[in-house]
Amino acid sequence: MSTASLLVRGVDDVIVQALKERAARHGRSAEAEHRALLAQALLRPPRRPLAEVLAAMPNVGRDEDFARVPPREAARVFD
Asked: pTM score > 0.85 for this model?
């Protein structure tokens, strides 16, 4: 894979300092930390829609297992 250079101008000093501190915690340079942050943000798999996640849930239990319990009975649910 080829590499390119990226120059970011106009970054607030507070952000630059936070990047340097984060890089130090991870034992790498600010430049390496910046590369890692970009990769993490841009190359991660896309989030699945909630409907897809719900549809993938197994069909377990009975409807009554998920019924609301009145607050006064809630203390006895696990008795």
From this structure: no
